[in-house]
Amino acid sequence: MSMPKFRSARMNARSAALRAAGLRPIEIWVPNTRRAGFAEECRRQCLLLRNDPQEQNTLQHLGTIADDYGWQ
């Protein structure tokens, strides 16, 4: 879906406010989770890491430092 050529005044005001707050827009490209084979590739990579000692160490470290207050 293409973006309209001209943005609304409301969108322009919002962008100006965000810029004034010290933020800037960026474009982020992420994997297409709807692509054929995506789930299979995720599974393949997970299986490669399943018994990896460095991966276990990393997961343990993340579990230690994670802020999970309020999560159930």
3D architecture notes:
The two termini are 38 Å apart. The protein is mainly α. It has three helices and no strands. The radius of gyration is 21 Å and the shape is flat.
Protein topology:
Layout: H1 9-20, H2 38-49, H3 53-65
Supply database-style keywords.
72 residues, mainly alpha
Helix share, percent = 40-55%
Poorly predicted regions are: none
Average predicted local confidence, pLDDT: 91
The SSE order reads HHH
Give the C-alpha Rg: 21 Å
Number of strands: 0
Number of DSSP helices?
3
What characteristic shape results from the CA principal axes?
Answer: flat
Distance between the termini: 38 Å
> What structural category characterises the helix and strand content?
mainly alpha
Oligomer class: single chain
Short description:
The protein has 72 residues and is mainly alpha-helical. The chain has three helices and no strands.
